[in-house]
Amino acid sequence: MTSSFTERLLCWYREHARDLPWRGRDDPYAIWVSEVMLQQTQVETVVPYFERWMQRFPSIADLADADLQEVLALWEGLGYYGRARNLHRAARLIVEKFGGQLPDDIKTLRRLPGIGRYTAGAIASIAFGQDEAVLDGNVRRVMARVFDVALPARSSECEHRLWELAVAHLPPGRAADYNQALMDLGATLCTPRDPQCALCPVAELCRARRLGVQEQRPLPQARKNVPHYIVTAAVIQEDGKVLIARRPQKGLLGGLWEFPGGKLQAGEDLALCLQREILEELGVKVRLEGRVGVFRHAYTHFRVTLHAFYCSLEGAQKPRSLEHEAIQWVTCEELSHYPMGKIDRRIARALASKRYMQSLSHSSQIATDAHH
């Protein structure tokens, strides 16, 4: 028997379902890609990335055949790059073991790189019509409020209780609409701040609203101090080119290109830090020639302030890739062809902008000279 909560939810969804480019597609691959992109990323951000992705990699076989650098370049700006690497790895496994077809068995799905319980449930229910529940941030918030789950968010006890509720109210044969309705409700009305309870289809059933604690559900977690690091980066110049390095595949921003450098250590100034890092990473000494700029960025669990400097090589020794997968000399114009994290891309754009302004200044000077 379908609960009153579920019936109201499905009735609302029939009228208010969001029009999204991955909905209405008879393509499990598109559902998989969308669900991975939507992990920790808002829909408005995902839509253009999804459309570009499906145009370039319209099938699992196309993705499997692609070079990882192209995959990362297309993903650039979406963040959490492990998702892109896992999609690529999983596509190759699917071609190798399943003939290029995404498996419809939830246990098999969960063995693929980057697919956990939530993503497997979303694919199984939306793509294959199976009776599987999901629990993402939006679903978690709706369930915690409607059923007044007063447990610390993300605690194992809270997760267990919310999964129980999601499964208990799932209507047999209608899991796809049920899961997407919960996602839509959480994204549009049952929002983290200022929820629109007056428009909510299940407001009369909402226990947290009845108690006036809807904005305290899920129960907030104690905030941890976010570490802040001072970082340096070298824009090493030679013969009109700059040196970039590709990060190891494992770890933060794996496989992306960067301007080499690293964290400031106790007792160091910025120059000493950068010279030490370049010696460790590239086996060469550098001379600082000037400042490119200061760049700030917040990652999920820490913040950085990065100081970038123009540098030149000392002596005749050539840089070597000691801690990176590869190094490459490129022109400023070529930097756009190499996938980078946000902070390194900002440095690249600053270099391109300064080069452009220098070009304008040079052209203006030539015109002035010609006029005189």
- Structural category: alpha+beta
Calculate the terminal CA-CA distance, rounded to whole Å.
90 Å
**How many extended strands?**
7
Helicity, as a percent range? 40-55%
Percent of residues in beta strands?
A: 5-15%
What is the residue-averaged pLDDT? 93
Query: Could you say which overall geometry the principal axes of the C-alpha atoms support?
Result: elongated
The SSE string, one letter per element, is HHHHHHHHHHHHEEEEHEEEH
Low-confidence stretches: 359-372
Taking all Cα atoms into account, the compactness measure Rg is 25 Å
Biggest sheet record:
7 strands, mixed
Number of helical elements: 14
Can I get a quick summary?
The chain is an alpha+beta fold and about 375 residues long.
Descriptors:
372 residues; alpha+beta; seven-stranded mixed beta sheet; 14 helices; 7 strands; disordered C terminus
Provide an overview of this structure.
Helix 8 crosses helix 11. The chain starts with a helix and ends with a helix. By secondary structure, it is α+β, with helices and mostly antiparallel strands. Strands 1, 2, 3, 4, 5, 6 and 7 form a 7-stranded mixed beta sheet that branches. The protein is elongated. It contains 14 helices and 7 strands.
Secondary structure topology:
Layout: H1 4-16, H2 28-37, H3 43-56, H4 60-65, H5 68-75, H6 82-98, H7 106-110, H8 117-127, H9 137-146, H10 156-168, H11 175-188, H12 207-211, E1 228-238, E2 241-246, E3 257-258, E4 261-263, H13 270-282, E5 286-298, E6 303-313, E7 326-330, H14 342-371
Parallel strand pairs: 1-6
Antiparallel strand pairs: 1-2, 1-4, 2-3, 2-7, 5-6
Helix pairs in contact: 1-11, 2-3, 2-8, 8-11, 9-10, 9-11
